[in-house]
Amino acid sequence: MPTSIARAHTNIALVKYWGKADTDLIIPQTSSLSLTLDQFYTDTSVTFDERLTADQVVVNHQSLSPTASRKVRHVLDLVRHQAQTTTFAQVTSQNHVPTAAGLASSASAFAALAAAASRAAGLTLDRTALSRLARRGSGSATRSIFGGFVEWQAGHDDATSYAVPFQEHVTWPIAMVALVLDPHRKKVSSRQGMQASVTTSPYYPAWRQVVAQDLAAIKPAILAQDFPIVGTILESNAMRMHALTLSAQPAYSYFNGDSLAAMQTVRDLRAAGTACYYTLDAGPNVKVFCQAADLPTITQRFSAQFGADRVLVAHPGPGVQWLSEPLTD
């Protein structure tokens, strides 16, 4: 079978997904809404080869063990089932994202895998089917099939849980400044953290209500390009998600000292008249939602605080793409 190469971008959830209703199918407790980002992406090539005796998975030039590649092989098995084949695959992936540090590397990785593997197997899946397939590798990957603002509709089973574009072509001059405060793998994975919050936080039932209210409020604000309302909602939603980590038993946190300092800097900038808001996923890295006109002020401030190499600027990005050229560094 021919090789297929796909690129998918990361997304940052503005209204968070935190907790599964079904851990096997990765059905979320709530819906969520995200923004796909242009700067962080994964390129993945897949070839089904009858000469192989097992799946071979290479990520960033390193071969993964069967244990480390378990989730990748699970998605490949789903593709094989749909394509009615038993042929093993060669998967080569390059992550242009700090892995497992709260920048949604798994979202771009599994969205790219779903797109490349399905096409390499001869399947022609529409974007809804791709979104459902990507979800089986990583929940947030379901949103990275689409560009711009994306809503993951929680649904109640495999057929009804998938992402839909909310506003795919973003003309609003907004940006996201990513502060890479710790590029290392986090100690508590998203899956571990979610399960702990769902089962032990006394505030989890209230979280479901918060998400429903935030989704209802943020969607008209996006359409109206109301920057302060969108920013206020995404910042408070992030802090309420992280309150679930602090209220779990035992408690855990994704923040470090630099996270707290960066959040204070955002508050200081806002008090001084520069409109910006922060959000964090499951990791210490802070993302700053801002308007393009304020990028010089914001990037200069954080470059002075943390170093210019740790300040990355992203804008709204595209959905999944298929590439014709081989992967290069």
Automatic annotation (TrEMBL):
Protein keywords: ATP-binding, Kinase, Lipid biosynthesis, Lipid metabolism, Lyase, Nucleotide-binding, Transferase
Enzyme Commission designation: 4.1.1.33
Pfam families associated with the record: MDD_C, MVD-like_N
Keyword ATP-binding in annotation: yes
Residue span, Diphosphomevalonate decarboxylase-like N-terminal domain: 8-163
Molecular function GO labels: ATP binding; diphosphomevalonate decarboxylase activity; kinase activity
PANTHER family (UniProt xref): DIPHOSPHOMEVALONATE DECARBOXYLASE
Listed name of the protein: diphosphomevalonate decarboxylase
